[in-house]
Amino acid sequence: MSHHIVEVKNLQHVYPDGTIAIKDVSFRITHGESVAIIGANGAGKSSLLQHLNGCLEATSGEVMIGDTRLSKGTLPDIRRTVGMVFQNPDDQLFMPTVFEDVAFGPLNLGLSGLEVELRVKKALERVGAGHLCTKPPYLLSGGEKKRVAIATVLAMSPDILVMDEPTSGLDPYARRQLMSLLRDFQHTKIFTSHDLDMVLDLCPRTIILYEGVVMADGPTRDIFLNDALLAACRLEKPFTMQGCPICNKSADTKKL
After folding, report:
1. Residues with Cβ < 8 Å from 193, sequence gap 6 or more?
2. pLDDT tens digits for 97-133?
3. Topology (CATH) of 6-90+160-255
């Protein structure tokens, strides 16, 4: 079985204060799929993603990456396969310079100095951040931090890319760059996003979470055409599917 496959089986997560974030969630994502996990705030999206590379430990159920069950013993191997970009880049950037942050992962893989340099350069160029190489992360803007955080994961050459709100904090140009990068990434992609137009553009498949439960899992366009489902899950259609409010208003006026 391909190690690019992600399988979640009857996953549940209860936080120490008793909050149930994930309730009996199951799904299977195969090699090369691009899948969005969407939902209103508090639906459990970030909690779910953090189980895919062991940032959170399941209360019950399991996560499989290929034939490997995620556990404390398999965590190092899982994290070489599953690259995770957090919603807040400050959770990922902790070294004195951007170069050192992006180099941290490859160095821990035991790669040589020259190979590390090449990986850092390539990763930063892919996110349009090559000019930030020598800067301290705390001097970067929010969008620049986001791009560097993505570069730290790309430098690890993951087979599965997991991203929590990847376009959050990006300006339109950086957003287009990121979408182009995601289109070019040929392996498995899983991300959460409130940017539903990006979801429509990049993900043939969408999973809706609502209060920790999977409410729908299927073709993205079919899900966005289901008005009753979207309303029940406190979601709206992407802007590109809503039509022009001015034109629609004019059409309604003519009918009257």
Report:
1. 36, 38, 165, 166, 167, 199
2. 999 999 999 998 888 889 999 999 999 998 889 999 9
3. Rossmann fold (3.40.50)
